[in-house]
Fold these 4 entries.
Entry 1:
Amino acid sequence: MQIKTITEQEIQQYRAETRGTAERIHFNNAGSALPPDVVVETVVNYLNEEAVFGGYETEFKYSAELDNIYPLIARLINANDDEIALVENASTAWGIAFNGISFKKGDVIITSEMEYVTNLISFLNVQQSQGVELKVIANDEQGNFPLHELEAAISPQTKLIAVTHIPSTAGGMIPIVEIGKIARRHNILYLVDACQSAGQIPVDVREIDCDMLSVTGRKYLRAPRGTGFLYVRKAVQDKLKLFFMDGFSAPSVSMEAYRPRDDARRFELYEKNRALTLGLGKAVEYALDIGVDRIWQRIQYLADLLRSQLQNIDGITVHDIGDQKCGIVTFSVKGIDSAAVKNKLGEKHINVSVGKAISTRIYMDKNHLSSIVRASVHYYNTEEELQQLCTELAAL
């Protein structure tokens, strides 16, 4: 089925509904995207009602809207409502899933060179504390993840395959659907970090065939900071340890025993920011109304156009490689530190970010990069904004 392209009229509508686009050119969507006005208003209005009517009373009033966030997220990633847990961010979601796995000495974790620093720290922790072995599958010379090497690395000791779909400091992507087929064939737990994926590219947990998937709200979903969610396949939920619980996650309690909830909300605690949670729901609804497939088409177009324009500027090196590329465009400017480039562009009201080596340690060290400039586009960006970025970079 042909995807209906986002029209110029629609882009202007989305920009009109996003007050930040009138103030700055925002190419830091992989850090924190500009929220639609309706998301901001949802959060502020809820906080105002809390201040007047009370926190518990306001929560009760909005209980139906709060409950509806689970099916909204389930629709976004093609999951069931009872496979979704609401948490504060992707790192929390990923940590709940990873630390819920019972590792023993000799177990093997397989990952890629694109893994995020927070996840890498957890790998190193179980390696040092529990004798777990870590195997890293390096990308090939073209920047693609070699599926045959993953297949060859699997052994009876392989406990987990964990990959970050879209890395923090590179424009390439990991083939999570194909990896999922391998994981399922070998009956190995499969954890996907999709913090940059949700809201940018269609995410279908049934197609990926993952057991666990972690997401943040603030990036391409355009939700408030301090929001995120965790997907855990229903069949896996009982296999993960719960390392914190309260009366919400384990509502059946006696002096002899307790029983956790029978859905993914067992991984939540009762107390959370309801205003931000409603903002997350509104952001998911906004993305679904546009269509994530349409968003992805627009992002690919803008990112490819930006890479092409940057490659025509003397002194700029674009670092993105691999057959699959996303909305993150990484580059460096000859003779100018990445932080200085960011600051100079900031003076012109253009937001970019700096990708540091620590964020994607294995990949950055392999490619001898200490830092890069990261420009991450979203559907509400325009061709004129790309041109203005390139004009300012050429002037440097």
Note: The chain has two domains: 8-32+291-395, 43-289.
Entry 2:
Amino acid sequence: MSTPWLQAQELQGRHVRLEPLGLAHVEGLRAAVSDGALHRLWYTSAPAPEDVEAYVAQALLEQAQGSSLPFAVRALASGEIVGTTRYCHVDARNQRLEIGYTWYAAAVQRTAVNTECKWLLLRHAFEQLDCIAVEFRTHWLNQRSRAAIARLGARQDGILRNHSRMPDGSLRDTVVFSIIASEWPAIRQHLLFIQEQR
């Protein structure tokens, strides 16, 4: 039997530790999603506090199927769980994946947390998993998310119109960005520079 391409492991930086997601993280994620009422932002995928356990269970099911690898995000300064992110839409054969399902408590938004999480995930994807491309996707109307992805150095590939249905029944236009392996060395330096400024 071959070894799975993605294997659960911790990724740690100066500000955050990405821990393999588990049911032990449910209470911390409930507190995080409540900070800023993230589930009320109609263009995000953050669950309501009462749905966090089912959200985690679904993520773990997808991990067992080999299509994702979810993480809880722990802020090292406070020791608290402040959000979640994951590798998803994994294509092991073609060594491609997406970084998505990312949300953070309001208290850590616009801090070093997101940049360092992306740095850890991208470095692992390109330097350990030997990815040929890493994608990011977001709602066309989520201007904050689009700007944050662009700041990483990802390029916009296109827009998938009427791509999926939102929980409220509306149709989502999905903006697709990516970073390819040949771009990683320059983006690596860019992200290191950004982190040094914080």
Note: Strands lie at 11-12, 16-20, 69-75, 81-91, 96-104, 133-139, 155-165, 171-180.
Entry 3:
Amino acid sequence: MKKIVLAILVLSLSVFAGQINIAVAANVSYAIDDLIKEFNKTNPDTQVLVTLGSTGKLTAQIKNGAPYNILMGANMKYPQALFDEQIAITKPVIYAQGSLAILSNSKKYFEKGIALTDEASIKKIAIANPKTAPYGKAAVEAMKNGGVLAKVENKFVYAESISQTVTYALTAADLGFIAKSSLYSPKMAMYKKGINWVDVDSKLYTPINQGIVIIKNAQDNQEVRAFYDFILGEKAKAIFTDFGYLVP
């Protein structure tokens, strides 16, 4: 009888132990490790596999059958599209709200704000591709509303994701429009506010609401649901706040 009970227990545990696949917007790359570590404190047998990229490209992959169970997008547009097409089974919910910063590898006169982009000394400006990356779209909107877009558009160096934009801002451009969350990575501690970076005035762009959805292939997957609930919970909110996000 004890062997039977033990076998049933092992079988029941195995139902909940496995892998889940999540597609994650590149701007969350700096926080995702901490999020998974916190999740695994209560779900130690769940392996979370992460694919990072621009939300537009990740969404296209999902539509083409990529086996992701969750999309953590950089905006609400793409998660909403998946829900509208009945590829996602949950309505998009905001898990965090991102913000923009301007970053440079060298000291700049950041008190000029977004007008700095029009300086003659600024030859190249790194931004994420606005066609696929919401932070790139927000950067273009900020420059347009700041009255500099037409004058600086020819300086743009396009990156495929917001994480690649950070690299370009520090190596291939004079400055770049990045996700503020990237500045909270330990690797970025050497870059100081007012010297290497500054916030972009939030009045210049639409708030970057970031949405999460569960994909149809995970409809009955309790581990996926557990991770989804965790991302919307208080412990995850605390981590997002630590990485410079606003949380709902």
Note: The chain has two domains: 2-97+208-242, 99-204.
Entry 4:
Amino acid sequence: MFLTHAADVLGDTDDGLSGSNIAKAFTGYAFDLNVNIPHASYPFGANVPNKRTALLENLKRFEPKDQYRIIRELCEHPKLPQPVPGSVNNLKIQLIARYADQFGSVTSETLNVTLVEEAKHWLTDYPDSLNLYDSALTKFNNNVFERNLLDDLRLSLELLLKSIFKNTKSFENQIPQIGTFINSKGGSKEFSNMFRTLVEYYSKYQNSFVKHNDAVIEEEVEFIFEMTSSFMKHLVKMNIKS
């Protein structure tokens, strides 16, 4: 079912790859992986109703781990319409969310691994928040620098604040309480003000992408990821402080 969906998206008339680009890409994969494919040249022939069918029938000849790689790389193909259509980005996100663990995700070489592992450790008792954090990490490790990743990080932090403060307030309405919380745990006034101000600017940054759905910048996502990790690590540590 997923292969059929991938073929429909990547072979879409308006938003997908052309027939010649599909044939060329699969010819390269067939050669590299020593696989015989039914449609190695374009036009595909009278018995093939459309390019989606050719793409699907070619794709089925590969092993699952290679199908994963092929779909992912086709989602990043330089001949796709620019900017890359949302349907293609959604396909890539779905692919990674469902199959990255099974077929091997790419490990980031840029994130502060120690900070990430510490954040995950402190989130152990907050499974809802941890699940969203892991989802964002999977997307980052697979180079999915989309608004969807930022949404996961924001909601992960929001759920953590709701758990710690024991309320159901929105993210923005939690910000004033952060300063009070830090003060109650013995934090300095300066640290409390700085922490609250950083979270406020963090919220404004997130909101700009939620409203405009812009493509995010990789370096900025890395910074936001590590900032979120640091926020959550310190909030949980302070929460267990008497």
Note: The chain has a mean pLDDT of 89.
